[in-house]
Amino acid sequence: SPSGISSSVFAFLRLHALTNHDLYIDRAEHEIQRYESAAGRAPSAFAHLMAARDFVQRGPFEIVLAGEKSAATALATSVHRAYLPARVLAFAEDVPIGRERHPVNGRAAAYVCRNRTCAAPMTDGNALLEYCSSRRV
After folding, report:
1. Over the stretch 39-80, which tens digit does the pLDDT of each residue have?
2. Fewer CB within 10 Å: C terminus or N terminus of the chain?
3. Would you put residue 10 in left (φ > 0), alpha (ψ -120 to 50) or beta?
4. Which residues pair with 116 in a beta bridge?
5. Which positions ≥6 away from 54 have C-beta within 8 Å?
6. What is the pLDDT of residue 136?
7. What is d(CA 56, CA 45) in angstroms, rounded to the nearest whole number?
8. What is the distance between the alpha carbons of residues 34 and 48, in angstroms, rounded to a whole number?
9. Contact, 30 vs 47, CB < 8 A?
10. pTM for the complete prediction?
């Protein structure tokens, strides 16, 4: 199971993605660097921390859900079924990156972006799951 350190690193990375406060990325990078040598000697013991390093290097999957929370929650369930360790999931009204995200034709929509490249908004949970599951992690 993941260590407390690697779990806190993921928390810092997600907070940075949501708030853009440099304090969070600085803390995450500090912890990754602190254990990098040990991870090089025993990578299987630091798998979750190395996934966090990948999160830093390749960027997060930012998934913003727009629309009524009850409908958007069904989309969130689809996202949680896919393995995306670099996932940052939020409701549009709760985060600055959600300001420009709106429902599509009155339906809750998921906006999935990585490195400032976004897919078309998705309103179908099965299509969202398929899309998220096909992403290179």
Report:
1. 999 999 999 999 999 999 999 999 999 999 999 999 999 999
2. N
3. alpha
4. none
5. 85, 86, 137
6. 65
7. 19
8. 14
9. no
10. 0.86
